[in-house]
Amino acid sequence: MRNIIRGIIILSSMVVLLSACYNDNEYDLYPFAATPCDSTNTTYSQTMTAIMLANCNVCHSTAVQSGGVITDTWAGLNAVAVNGKLWGGVSWASGYKNMPNGGSQLSTCDLAKIKNWINQGAPNN
Known about the structure:
Blueprint: H1 2-19, H2 26-29, H3 44-55, H4 74-82, H5 85-90, H6 108-119
Helix pairs in contact: 3-6
């Protein structure tokens, strides 16, 4: 009888241990650790204005215009998106001044959103 009980305990323990890590993924384990990046619905009015406000408008607004670049209006931002200055600066491409000036490079999520908006033709949406 002891051997049967011991066998049941060992078998139950093995089942619990083997199934304990089933289907674990980073989001299920740490749901608040990181927010997934959605760069598919990139718009000027929602996405780009927020990124520019947080990182660029201090130096590149209609009032300041550092380097002749304006990022607080669609027309100004569209101009640097079309001529390649926006992507060259934020992606730290060779031959362009790294932006934000003196700061850290934008997050990979923000870069993906900017690239998607540019690839859409930098629309005023």
